[in-house]
Amino acid sequence: MIPQSFISDLLNRVDIVDVVGRYVQLKKGGANFMGLCPFHNEKSPSFTVSPTKQFYHCFGCGAHGTSIGFMIEYSGMGFVDAVKELAQNCGMVVPEQDDKIPPAQRAQMQAQSMALSEAMNLAADYYKSQLRSAPNAIGYLKSRGLTGEIAARFALGFAPNGWDNLRSVFPNYEALALVEAGLVIDRVDEEGNHRKRYDRFRERVMFPIRNTKGQVIAFGGRIMEQGEPKYLNSPETPLFSKGHELYGLFEARQAIRDAGYVLVTEGYMDVVALAQMGFPQSVATLGTACTSTHVQKLLRQTDTVIFSFDGDKAGRRAAQRALEACLPHVSDNKTIKFLFLPAEHDPDSYIREYGAPAFEQQVHEAMPLSQFLLRVVSAEHDLSEPEGRARVQFEAKPLLQAMTPSALRLQIVRGLATMTQSSPGEIEQLYELSKPVAEVRRAPQRSSRPQPVGLELQIVRHLVAHPPLAFTIDEAGLGAFTNFGEEAAERLYQLIAAAIALGPQGSFAALAQHLKEQGSEYDGIISEIAAEPESDFDAIKTYLSSAIRQIRTDALKAELAQLFASGLSSSEIGVRYREITAMQDQLLREAEAELSAR
């Protein structure tokens, strides 16, 4: 877990204008910067970046956040990866409580990572330059209908024939980094002695594989004639894990947002050809089955994922593995579908034979996950016989157990129940599903605490906008919040604790990032603050102390009224009366001192 104080320090060091400016063209507009929102289609800019608040806000779609939030939303990174990326760019090292790696070893690992990245970049540039003088490779790409523009977009290259062409790129061809990056292979004899080193990729069209930051981390090489393997991929390296990366995701991010869905295919050429034919929202798994990590990455980019598989048996098996990877991440606000083309076609060949409109129609008619799941479990069993229906239930059990309780799971349970002549309750009981929803009445959801209003709302807003104000509130001030009620006081205590955890230099951006991680309770307030001009800290500080003083004064007046109405004797009232009037006098002196100091 990364300490909040580090998050605060990081957001104080990075400049959100620089971070956003790498991906969005910004122009100065008054105190802020303006640009076209990267999260929705617009023709006139409504996307603002505030250098004083270190916050972005779109008046069109409502998107808002910090530098960390932008990296997460734009690139699809996880929170920790976004923090590490920003920290690396400004020379900070992310502290992790569970990090047991000694500093010297960590420094060595970072040096290794940099060496591998440099090697991959040099190799990518070399392969790209070789494509310009390779008529056979250019002819092959043209025969697949690709233009020079699309080849440049995906930085396609060519590895010429020969055993050690990379020797011209790397003066130290024997460097260990070349093996670790998967660019060369060391041949060893039976005794394990090194005999010869040679290039891994030879006479292949090269597809650079980029991570979400745009860095080349691996290659896929396709043979142009007959031969095996048709595709040769980089091995697993410290930079590259097939189960975590998706080809084309870096290039497709904006197109995915524009289209509202991502199309997942099986091969590099499918991605490039589909982009050429008007479907740039396509990505591909890297010669491996779709994994849970793949699904998580995709659902960070969009709410709709459509898997496109060949119609043959291999494509059906791949689709079933993708289904299994998706089930733990299924929710009622996400849509997952499966597109099956005729057995003789892949997306590339289908779109060339029938055209883009026909393929788009296939996309729209893709099979929903629920339908595909029921088809998978029932395809090979006779539903007219008890044994067949029992077998269907047996096949479905692990799939439904992998799903979290949701309305969609209930719908699948009902479909399965109808198919197998059972009731939904019987299915849930038979499968021992967690939190069954078919037969058991669920307890009403606990209502969230009421939204702040009036003076409480103003105090909350000012604390969110200026977290260092939390350090100005003493014990008496904290005690005054109980006058708003128990839940309201608890909200203010939690907010003040979060602000103090950021340190005296805590910013609106840092606190907003923290609150966003906790839930959506403050989203409206954060959005309003982001859209407003910067408020004056000293003026707000004076207002806050005055407001707290007024709350305490009103509370003392109310207590005095209760005291006189209590029916107690004068002697019994006297002690508390003197205490209350002394506190009132103190509050009055504080107000006068503050007024004279202005």
TrEMBL record:
State its cofactor.
Zn(2+)
Similarity comment: Belongs to the DnaG primase family.
Q: What protein name is recorded for this chain?
A: DNA primase
Give the InterPro entries listed for this entry: DNA_helicase_N/primase_C, DNA_primase_core_N_sf, DNA_primase_DnaB-bd, DNA_primase_DnaG, DNA_primase_DnaG_DnaB-bd_dom, DNA_primase_Znf_CHC2, DnaG_bac, DNAG_N
Q: Which organism is it from?
A: Pseudoduganella aquatica
| SUPFAM superfamilies for this protein | DNA primase core (SSF56731), Zinc beta-ribbon (SSF57783)
The UniProt note on the cofactor reads as follows: Binds 1 zinc ion per monomer.
Q: Which Pfam family, an example, fits this chain? A: Toprim_2
Q: What is the lineage of its organism?
A: Bacteria, Pseudomonadati, Pseudomonadota, Betaproteobacteria, Burkholderiales
